[in-house]
Design goal:
Blueprint (H helix, E strand, L loop, with lengths): L1 H24 L5 H7 L5 H10 L30 E2 L3 E2 L2 H9 L1 H4 L12 H13 L3
Antiparallel strand pairs: 1-2
């Protein structure tokens, strides 16, 4: 009986360990690490671009004055999300891709294509990933 009990305890511990690892992986990357992964992205410049492109008219964006829109989801904590737009794995490259051409990812999205170039999309992605909460 003791061996059986030990085996059960070991099995439960193994399952708990696997579940914890899977749950940890569901949170995406953290802001500081992820913004460093946005190749060539400048989060300081990205903050200004969010204002100039008017992202705050649809989204709430922490750290951007006047960005209190409620049409789209709040952009706080983007770096910790599993998916972008419910379709793309949350990676810096995918976030920049989404920002640059949302209709290319999901033709039915309400998010407009604002005509961003690659650099602007990377800078905005870097800023968003820098937002921890």
């Amino acid at each position: 009986m003791t061996r059986l009990r030990s085996a059960k305890v070991a099995a439960v511990a193994a399952v708990a360990s696997i579940a914890a690892a899977l749950l940890a992986g569901c949170h995406g990357q953290t802001g500081t690490q992820a913004s460093a992964d946005v190749a060539g992205g400048d989060p300081v410049r990205g903050r200004g671009l969010i204002r100039s492109y008017g992202c705050g008219s649809c989204h709430e964006v922490k750290g951007v004055p006047g960005a209190q829109g409620t049409v789209g989801p709040p952009l706080t904590g983007v770096g910790g999300r599993m998916y972008i737009a419910g379709r793309l794995a949350n990676t810096p490259e995918n976030l920049a891709r989404w920002i640059k051409d949302p209709k290319g990812v999901d033709e039915k999205t309400a998010m407009p294509n604002l005509g961003l170039d690659d650099q602007d999309a990377r800078d905005i992605a870097a800023f968003l990933y820098d937002q921890r909460q």
